[in-house]
Amino acid sequence: MLPVQVEGEWAKRPAYVLVETGHKEERDGKSVPAWKGLQIVPPTEKDLAIWFAKKAGKGLAVVTGAVSSLIILDFDGPDGEKLRQQLGLPVHVRTGSGGSHVYFEHPGWPVATLNSKAKHELGQRWTGLDIRGDGGYAIIPPSVNPSGPYTWESAPGDVLPLSRLPDDLRAFLGLLEPPKRPEPRPAATVTSYQGSRQDGQGRPPGELLVGRALDRVNSGEGRNNAGMWLATQLRDNGYSRGEAQAVMRDYAAQVPVQDAHGRHDPYSESEAAATLASAYSRPSREPWEDRRTLSTSTPAANRGDVRDVTLPDTFDVAGPVPVEPIGETGTGPVILTGDNAFQQVAAALQVRNVDGVVARRALSAEEVQRLVADRRALFVLNPSGAQERAFDAAGVEWYPLQDLQIRQNPETLNQALTEAMTTAWEASLQGSVPFLERDLLALADARLNRGGHTYPTGLAAFDEAIGGGFYDGLHVLGGVTGGGKTALALAVAQFNAQAGRPVLYVTYEQSRYELWGRVISSNTGVPLRQLRTGGTADRPVSGQLRTNERYQELTRSVAPHFTVIEGDGFEGGAWGTDRIAAQVRRMKAAYGAAPLVILDYLQRMPSGSDKEKRHQIDEVVMGLQVRLGRELNTPVLLISSVGRGKYGELVTAPLEERLGVFKESGGVEYTAYTASLLYPLGSTHIQALGLEDPPATGSSRAALKGLWKYLVLDLAKNREGEAPRQWVVRWYPATGKFELIQSIDPEQLNDLPPSSGRRSR
């Protein structure tokens, strides 16, 4: 048995309580849970007593393999359920997400744990199937995770014989017969590469890279790992996808047909293609060249903190270059290189350095201030956004050195550095010329083609007013608690996810279960109160959802593009701007477009500051605009609570007064590109606009047409379009549906006599 987490991003992972019984490992100076020992020896009664002294917050898993004499087939999703039925297998455990686990006896020899997403052929031939064998585990009842409870559908202890599986599946999973004794694995068919070390474009030739990858295989590294290394080198050295595919095919043709254990398992071209696709979905890194290690006999005491380094063969350097300190009276420029490029830049500066340029790996705050005092220029290799902000704040004269090819011989690099520094300095004298000649045109093309970076709300007139939908940058929607702002945000999220556009929803108030419950209820008709309680013993919600076609459609069409994260820090730390930015990068790599980020709501977001709350909010807002909106080109819809007021009269209030309700939100209304409000439309104004009265709760009309409320969607600020604009919106709370009824002419409402409810001034 194994205790597991049940909530947050670490759900289903081994629980931290394992550390208390010595099942741990050290990682980055911290003790983290480790369960490898439990794959061999089952836990003791004392272990179990400690793990489950407190039942809350933990789930239970069974360790599969020889230690438990179990293997478990995991059928997930509609495809998995269809496959299980085709195989005629019963269900032993129904998972929280509606999948099924089927228990089989262990054959007595090692059985691999396989995931269909990682094992490409398994996913193709038996879609929706994973196997938990040796080195695996599976959640068991009565565990509950964010997807729902795990339940027994067969008597605990029932196990099927392997003969219930067809021979082709048993053979693929290694369950048909014991593996033969491994034969020595033949070496990869590779000969020493004798050709040029650079092709016509200055890149390492594909043959050289394939040879180095095969060297890794022959030294004992797995074929998949070596293939991933090769794919990343092709990416980093500027190979196109078409060129890289040809090189990967050469690699697949030369690697052994046996795996690391000597079993016959050819490395297919499809696996090579999948590896290549994974590598090219990530941003490029610094290119690789064949290297040799240079050592030195220089005593450590004379070398400062510089260690032996690895440099390209093209470098003619006798040993590591010592770090030059920032002198008290120095006058030359400083190049900030980081760790990776320091030795190359320092070696290049030794060739010729008439300006007294100094290379530095890093700079302390005191050294930056020394540069300011001495009016020395700073040049930074590929500065990050954080560095840019820090140097700007420090007041240092600094210039970026972008896209500088470091892997050159010292003489060539010296010339390249001189030209790059001159170009960077001259660029500061050109005003907006480079922006108009290059950057603005590129941005215009990017906006023309950004497609997935514009996220409509589904309310056509509102979308038209803001330019087609929420675009890169910060947008704010304000309203009071219970006023419909979260419901509208969920409707926008679902509308975009349904269309295949990625959405990241970070909730700081409600749980993921609660938010998904609202979406599920509005789509399936299962009352939200039942979802909150789980239903009844006679009619559990989980059973209703498993057979609900709309729920299955929601799972297939919306869920893959709609990520909900609980941002309150209950599990794994609070979700501030940094963590959200990291998640956005992951989603951009996966979907090829920045997601729409919805944050619900602003006042609960962590700031990491001990300043007054209003100033904390200002820092969060500016961080979101800069880090997400500008640096990652991400649309952000920020939900904000606002000050309570006479909302029935707000529709006719001056614009300054309407924007003033954001007083609890720092300066968000000034920073955001669009600022919208959602508030009730008063009964007097409903009559003045000639609208049908909304049905009363419990009336026959409500039962027939559904209960709705009238709201005002007030676009109070629109940096790139017309504002203010106001519309009447009909909101159906039970279904989460919003309908834009008509625009509002405030002058028409201002003409009402004072006795009709118009506010006097």
UniProtKB/TrEMBL annotation:
<feature type="region of interest" description="Disordered">
    <location>
        <begin position="260"/>
        <end position="306"/>
    </location>
</feature>
<feature type="compositionally biased region" description="Low complexity">
    <location>
        <begin position="269"/>
        <end position="281"/>
    </location>
</feature>
<feature type="compositionally biased region" description="Basic and acidic residues">
    <location>
        <begin position="283"/>
        <end position="293"/>
    </location>
</feature>
<feature type="domain" description="SF4 helicase">
    <location>
        <begin position="448"/>
        <end position="666"/>
    </location>
</feature>
<dbReference type="InterPro" id="IPR027417">
    <property type="entry name" value="P-loop_NTPase"/>
</dbReference>
<dbReference type="Pfam" id="PF09250">
    <property type="entry name" value="Prim-Pol"/>
</dbReference>
<feature type="compositionally biased region" description="Polar residues">
    <location>
        <begin position="189"/>
        <end position="199"/>
    </location>
</feature>
<dbReference type="InterPro" id="IPR007694">
    <property type="entry name" value="DNA_helicase_DnaB-like_C"/>
</dbReference>
<dbReference type="InterPro" id="IPR015330">
    <property type="entry name" value="DNA_primase/pol_bifunc_N"/>
</dbReference>
<dbReference type="Pfam" id="PF03796">
    <property type="entry name" value="DnaB_C"/>
</dbReference>
<protein>
    <recommendedName>
        <fullName>SF4 helicase domain-containing protein</fullName>
    </recommendedName>
</protein>
<feature type="region of interest" description="Disordered">
    <location>
        <begin position="176"/>
        <end position="206"/>
    </location>
</feature>
